[in-house]
Amino acid sequence: MIKINGKDASEAKGSSLGQYLDEKGYKKTYIAVEVNGAILPKTEYDSYIINDEDIIEIVNFVGGG
Amino acid sequence: MNDKLVIAGHEFNSRFILGSGKYSLELIKAAVENAGAEIITLALRRANSDTDNILDYIPKGVTLLPNTSGARNAEEAVRIARLSREVGCGDFVKIEVIHDSKYLLPDNYETIKATEILAKEGFIVMPYMYPDLNAARDLVNAGAATIMPLGAPIGSNKGICTKDFIKILIEEIDLPIIVDAGIGKPSQACEAMEMGAAAVMANTAIATAGDIPAMAEAFKKAIEAGRTAYLSGMGRVIEKASASSPLTGFLQD
User: Fold this and answer.
1) pLDDT, tens digit, for every residue of B146-171?
2) Model ipTM?
3) Which active-site residues of B does the annotation give?
4) Would A30 be classed as within a structural domain?
Protein backbone atom coordinates (compact mmCIF):
# COMPACT_ATOMS: atom_id res chain seq x y z
CA MET A 1 0.00 0.00 0.00
CA ILE A 2 1.14 3.53 -0.74
CA LYS A 3 0.63 5.96 2.11
CA ILE A 4 0.62 9.72 1.65
CA ASN A 5 0.19 11.80 4.80
CA GLY A 6 -1.01 8.72 6.63
CA LYS A 7 -3.75 7.80 4.14
CA ASP A 8 -4.00 5.09 1.53
CA ALA A 9 -2.97 6.57 -1.81
CA SER A 10 -2.59 3.43 -3.90
CA GLU A 11 -4.11 5.23 -6.90
CA ALA A 12 -0.92 7.31 -7.13
CA LYS A 13 1.19 4.30 -8.13
CA GLY A 14 3.19 4.96 -11.29
CA SER A 15 2.64 8.73 -11.32
CA SER A 16 5.53 11.07 -10.78
CA LEU A 17 5.43 12.91 -7.52
CA GLY A 18 5.32 16.19 -9.46
CA GLN A 19 2.18 15.00 -11.26
CA TYR A 20 0.55 13.92 -8.02
CA LEU A 21 1.26 17.28 -6.38
CA ASP A 22 -0.16 19.16 -9.37
CA GLU A 23 -3.29 17.02 -9.47
CA LYS A 24 -3.92 17.53 -5.77
CA GLY A 25 -3.30 21.27 -5.96
CA TYR A 26 -0.14 21.51 -3.85
CA LYS A 27 2.08 24.51 -4.55
CA LYS A 28 5.67 23.32 -4.60
CA THR A 29 7.02 26.54 -3.11
CA TYR A 30 5.06 25.95 0.10
CA ILE A 31 5.90 22.33 0.81
CA ALA A 32 8.61 19.85 1.66
CA VAL A 33 8.35 16.15 0.84
CA GLU A 34 9.78 13.14 2.58
CA VAL A 35 9.80 9.74 0.89
CA ASN A 36 10.44 6.70 3.07
CA GLY A 37 12.10 8.80 5.73
CA ALA A 38 14.41 10.82 3.44
CA ILE A 39 13.82 14.35 2.16
CA LEU A 40 13.18 14.48 -1.58
CA PRO A 41 14.65 17.71 -3.01
CA LYS A 42 12.19 19.88 -4.96
CA THR A 43 14.26 19.39 -8.11
CA GLU A 44 13.51 15.66 -8.00
CA TYR A 45 9.70 15.83 -7.72
CA ASP A 46 9.15 15.39 -11.44
CA SER A 47 11.55 12.49 -11.85
CA TYR A 48 10.42 10.52 -8.81
CA ILE A 49 7.92 7.80 -9.69
CA ILE A 50 5.70 6.74 -6.80
CA ASN A 51 6.26 3.06 -5.98
CA ASP A 52 4.33 0.39 -4.13
CA GLU A 53 4.90 0.56 -0.37
CA ASP A 54 6.10 4.17 -0.48
CA ILE A 55 5.42 6.20 2.61
CA ILE A 56 5.28 9.85 1.64
CA GLU A 57 4.87 12.90 3.85
CA ILE A 58 3.94 16.27 2.37
CA VAL A 59 4.33 19.08 4.90
CA ASN A 60 3.92 22.85 5.05
CA PHE A 61 3.90 25.66 7.56
CA VAL A 62 0.91 26.50 9.72
CA GLY A 63 0.44 28.94 12.58
CA GLY A 64 2.43 28.08 15.69
CA GLY A 65 4.23 29.52 18.66
CA MET B 1 20.25 54.70 19.15
CA ASN B 2 21.99 51.72 17.59
CA ASP B 3 20.54 48.98 19.75
CA LYS B 4 20.10 45.89 17.63
CA LEU B 5 19.17 42.37 18.55
CA VAL B 6 21.89 40.24 16.95
CA ILE B 7 21.25 36.54 16.36
CA ALA B 8 24.07 34.64 14.67
CA GLY B 9 25.17 37.79 12.87
CA HIS B 10 21.64 38.75 11.75
CA GLU B 11 20.51 42.15 13.04
CA PHE B 12 16.98 42.99 14.13
CA ASN B 13 15.54 46.31 15.31
CA SER B 14 12.57 44.63 17.00
CA ARG B 15 12.91 42.64 20.21
CA PHE B 16 9.46 41.12 19.93
CA ILE B 17 9.19 37.66 18.40
CA LEU B 18 5.59 37.01 17.51
CA GLY B 19 3.88 33.62 17.40
CA SER B 20 1.33 32.90 14.70
CA GLY B 21 -0.70 30.15 16.37
CA LYS B 22 -4.32 30.13 17.44
CA TYR B 23 -5.59 33.12 15.45
CA SER B 24 -6.89 33.65 11.97
CA LEU B 25 -4.63 34.11 8.96
CA GLU B 26 -6.44 37.36 8.16
CA LEU B 27 -5.16 38.93 11.38
CA ILE B 28 -1.52 37.94 10.98
CA LYS B 29 -0.49 40.91 8.83
CA ALA B 30 -2.05 43.45 11.19
CA ALA B 31 -0.56 41.70 14.23
CA VAL B 32 2.93 41.63 12.69
CA GLU B 33 2.71 45.28 11.67
CA ASN B 34 1.35 46.50 15.00
CA ALA B 35 3.91 44.39 16.84
CA GLY B 36 6.70 45.77 14.67
CA ALA B 37 7.86 42.15 14.69
CA GLU B 38 10.71 41.11 12.42
CA ILE B 39 10.62 37.44 13.40
CA ILE B 40 7.53 35.23 13.42
CA THR B 41 7.28 31.61 14.54
CA LEU B 42 5.55 28.88 12.56
CA ALA B 43 4.85 25.18 12.96
CA LEU B 44 5.29 22.38 10.41
CA ARG B 45 2.43 19.96 9.81
CA ARG B 46 1.06 17.62 7.17
CA ALA B 47 -0.05 19.76 4.26
CA ASN B 48 -3.62 20.24 3.19
CA SER B 49 -3.85 21.53 -0.36
CA ASP B 50 -7.33 23.01 0.00
CA THR B 51 -6.51 25.58 2.70
CA ASP B 52 -4.76 28.93 2.33
CA ASN B 53 -1.07 28.92 3.11
CA ILE B 54 0.17 31.03 5.99
CA LEU B 55 3.18 32.20 3.96
CA ASP B 56 0.80 34.30 1.84
CA TYR B 57 -0.25 36.24 4.94
CA ILE B 58 3.14 37.10 6.41
CA PRO B 59 4.54 40.47 5.26
CA LYS B 60 7.68 40.27 3.12
CA GLY B 61 10.97 40.77 4.91
CA VAL B 62 9.85 39.11 8.14
CA THR B 63 12.23 36.33 9.23
CA LEU B 64 10.52 32.97 9.61
CA LEU B 65 11.31 30.93 12.69
CA PRO B 66 9.85 27.43 12.29
CA ASN B 67 9.49 25.48 15.51
CA THR B 68 9.82 21.74 16.00
CA SER B 69 6.57 21.39 17.91
CA GLY B 70 5.32 17.83 17.89
CA ALA B 71 8.85 16.48 18.42
CA ARG B 72 9.09 14.12 21.41
CA ASN B 73 12.82 13.54 21.17
CA ALA B 74 15.95 14.90 19.48
CA GLU B 75 15.57 12.67 16.44
CA GLU B 76 12.07 13.95 15.70
CA ALA B 77 13.16 17.56 16.23
CA VAL B 78 16.00 17.10 13.74
CA ARG B 79 13.60 15.59 11.20
CA ILE B 80 11.15 18.50 11.53
CA ALA B 81 13.95 21.08 11.33
CA ARG B 82 15.35 19.55 8.15
CA LEU B 83 11.91 19.44 6.53
CA SER B 84 11.30 23.08 7.54
CA ARG B 85 14.52 24.17 5.90
CA GLU B 86 13.60 22.19 2.79
CA VAL B 87 10.45 24.30 2.38
CA GLY B 88 12.95 27.04 1.62
CA CYS B 89 12.55 29.86 4.11
CA GLY B 90 15.97 30.03 5.74
CA ASP B 91 18.09 28.42 8.41
CA PHE B 92 16.42 29.61 11.59
CA VAL B 93 14.81 26.97 13.80
CA LYS B 94 13.30 27.05 17.27
CA ILE B 95 13.91 23.68 18.90
CA GLU B 96 11.04 22.44 20.98
CA VAL B 97 11.14 18.91 22.38
CA ILE B 98 8.17 18.01 24.54
CA HIS B 99 6.74 14.73 25.76
CA ASP B 100 4.58 15.96 28.60
CA SER B 101 1.16 16.97 27.38
CA LYS B 102 -0.08 18.40 30.68
CA TYR B 103 2.51 21.12 31.28
CA LEU B 104 4.29 21.09 27.89
CA LEU B 105 7.64 21.41 29.62
CA PRO B 106 10.67 21.04 27.35
CA ASP B 107 13.14 18.16 27.68
CA ASN B 108 16.48 19.94 28.08
CA TYR B 109 18.54 16.80 27.49
CA GLU B 110 16.94 15.97 24.13
CA THR B 111 16.99 19.67 23.22
CA ILE B 112 20.76 19.79 23.72
CA LYS B 113 21.22 16.71 21.52
CA ALA B 114 19.09 18.21 18.72
CA THR B 115 20.88 21.56 19.00
CA GLU B 116 24.26 19.93 18.54
CA ILE B 117 23.20 18.04 15.40
CA LEU B 118 21.44 20.99 13.78
CA ALA B 119 24.09 23.59 14.60
CA LYS B 120 26.64 21.37 12.83
CA GLU B 121 24.34 21.34 9.79
CA GLY B 122 24.38 25.13 9.62
CA PHE B 123 21.03 25.86 11.26
CA ILE B 124 20.62 28.97 13.41
CA VAL B 125 19.35 27.12 16.46
CA MET B 126 17.15 28.84 19.03
CA PRO B 127 16.31 26.25 21.69
CA TYR B 128 13.26 26.54 23.93
CA MET B 129 14.34 25.28 27.35
CA TYR B 130 13.61 25.01 31.04
CA PRO B 131 15.77 27.69 32.71
CA ASP B 132 18.62 25.65 34.11
CA LEU B 133 22.12 27.10 34.05
CA ASN B 134 23.90 23.81 33.40
CA ALA B 135 21.61 22.98 30.49
CA ALA B 136 22.04 26.51 29.12
CA ARG B 137 25.82 26.11 29.20
CA ASP B 138 25.50 22.78 27.38
CA LEU B 139 23.32 24.49 24.76
CA VAL B 140 25.98 27.17 24.29
CA ASN B 141 28.61 24.46 23.78
CA ALA B 142 26.27 22.62 21.39
CA GLY B 143 26.16 25.68 19.14
CA ALA B 144 22.91 27.44 20.06
CA ALA B 145 22.45 30.96 18.67
CA THR B 146 20.19 32.10 21.52
CA ILE B 147 18.70 30.57 24.65
CA MET B 148 14.91 30.67 25.05
CA PRO B 149 13.95 29.91 28.65
CA LEU B 150 10.29 29.56 29.58
CA GLY B 151 8.58 32.02 31.90
CA ALA B 152 5.66 29.68 32.64
CA PRO B 153 3.97 26.75 30.88
CA ILE B 154 3.13 27.41 27.22
CA GLY B 155 -0.18 29.16 26.73
CA SER B 156 -0.75 29.72 30.45
CA ASN B 157 -0.40 33.55 30.42
CA LYS B 158 0.88 33.27 34.01
CA GLY B 159 3.89 35.56 33.63
CA ILE B 160 7.52 35.02 34.53
CA CYS B 161 7.23 32.37 37.24
CA THR B 162 10.88 31.43 36.66
CA LYS B 163 12.14 34.98 37.09
CA ASP B 164 15.07 34.33 39.43
CA PHE B 165 16.41 31.53 37.23
CA ILE B 166 16.11 33.55 34.04
CA LYS B 167 18.08 36.29 35.80
CA ILE B 168 20.86 33.79 36.41
CA LEU B 169 20.93 32.92 32.70
CA ILE B 170 21.06 36.61 31.76
CA GLU B 171 23.92 37.07 34.18
CA GLU B 172 25.95 34.02 33.19
CA ILE B 173 25.27 33.27 29.51
CA ASP B 174 26.75 35.41 26.75
CA LEU B 175 24.11 34.57 24.13
CA PRO B 176 20.84 36.53 23.77
CA ILE B 177 18.33 35.28 26.36
CA ILE B 178 14.83 35.38 24.89
CA VAL B 179 11.98 34.77 27.32
CA ASP B 180 9.56 32.41 25.62
CA ALA B 181 6.25 31.03 26.87
CA GLY B 182 4.00 32.09 29.68
CA ILE B 183 4.17 35.84 29.23
CA GLY B 184 0.54 36.88 29.45
CA LYS B 185 0.46 40.66 29.39
CA PRO B 186 2.52 43.65 28.34
CA SER B 187 3.67 44.47 31.89
CA GLN B 188 5.26 41.01 32.10
CA ALA B 189 7.00 41.49 28.75
CA CYS B 190 8.27 44.82 30.05
CA GLU B 191 9.49 43.11 33.21
CA ALA B 192 11.48 40.58 31.16
CA MET B 193 13.12 43.39 29.22
CA GLU B 194 13.86 45.40 32.38
CA MET B 195 15.66 42.29 33.71
CA GLY B 196 17.95 42.38 30.69
CA ALA B 197 16.35 39.79 28.43
CA ALA B 198 17.40 40.33 24.82
CA ALA B 199 13.89 39.77 23.49
CA VAL B 200 10.47 38.37 24.29
CA MET B 201 8.48 35.77 22.39
CA ALA B 202 4.70 35.74 22.81
CA ASN B 203 1.79 34.04 21.10
CA THR B 204 -1.12 33.09 23.34
CA ALA B 205 -1.23 36.46 25.12
CA ILE B 206 -1.93 38.09 21.76
CA ALA B 207 -3.99 35.27 20.25
CA THR B 208 -6.41 35.19 23.18
CA ALA B 209 -6.74 38.97 23.54
CA GLY B 210 -10.00 40.73 22.73
CA ASP B 211 -8.37 42.87 20.04
CA ILE B 212 -5.40 41.01 18.61
CA PRO B 213 -3.69 43.82 16.62
CA ALA B 214 -4.14 46.26 19.52
CA MET B 215 -2.60 43.81 21.98
CA ALA B 216 0.32 43.26 19.59
CA GLU B 217 0.90 47.01 19.69
CA ALA B 218 0.67 47.10 23.49
CA PHE B 219 3.34 44.40 23.70
CA LYS B 220 5.55 46.31 21.28
CA LYS B 221 5.39 49.43 23.44
CA ALA B 222 5.98 47.48 26.65
CA ILE B 223 9.01 45.69 25.20
CA GLU B 224 10.47 48.97 23.97
CA ALA B 225 9.85 50.61 27.35
CA GLY B 226 11.47 47.74 29.21
CA ARG B 227 14.48 47.75 26.94
CA THR B 228 14.98 51.50 27.31
CA ALA B 229 14.63 51.19 31.08
CA TYR B 230 17.22 48.40 31.16
CA LEU B 231 19.67 50.42 29.10
CA SER B 232 19.04 53.50 31.25
CA GLY B 233 20.02 51.71 34.44
CA MET B 234 17.31 51.25 37.02
CA GLY B 235 17.00 53.78 39.88
CA ARG B 236 18.05 52.53 43.30
CA VAL B 237 15.74 51.07 45.93
CA ILE B 238 16.05 52.16 49.60
CA GLU B 239 14.11 51.35 52.78
CA LYS B 240 13.19 54.87 53.89
CA ALA B 241 11.87 57.93 52.10
CA SER B 242 14.07 60.31 50.18
CA ALA B 243 12.41 63.66 49.41
CA SER B 244 12.17 64.58 45.77
CA SER B 245 11.52 68.28 46.47
CA PRO B 246 14.02 70.66 48.15
CA LEU B 247 14.10 70.49 51.98
CA THR B 248 14.78 74.24 52.24
CA GLY B 249 12.72 77.38 51.65
CA PHE B 250 9.53 76.17 53.35
CA LEU B 251 6.94 78.96 53.91
CA GLN B 252 6.70 78.42 57.67
CA ASP B 253 10.37 79.27 58.40
Assistant:
1) 999 999 999 999 999 999 999 999 99
2) 0.96
3) 94
4) yes
CATH of the domain at A35: 3.10.20.30
Cβ within 8 Å, pair A64-B88: no
Whether B46 sits inside 8 A of A24 (CB atoms) is no
**Closest Cβ–Cβ partner in A31, A39, A64 for B47:** A31
C-alpha B190/C-alpha B175 separation (Å) is 20
Residue A33: domain span: 3-60
Please check whether residue B188 is in contact with residue B160, taking contact to mean a CB–CB distance below 8 angstroms.
Answer: yes
Categorize the per-residue pLDDT at B1 as very low, low, confident or very high, splitting at 50, 70 and 90. Answer: low
Q: Domain limits of chain B?
A: 5-232
What is the arithmetic mean of pLDDT over B45-63?
A: 93
> Domain B5-232 belongs to what topology?
TIM Barrel (3.20.20)
Contact indicator for B186, B166 with CB cutoff of 8 Å: no
Instruction: pLDDT band for A61, please (50, 70, 90 cuts).
Output: very high
**CB of B4 closer than 8 Å to CB of B25:** no
Q: What domain count does chain A have?
A: 1
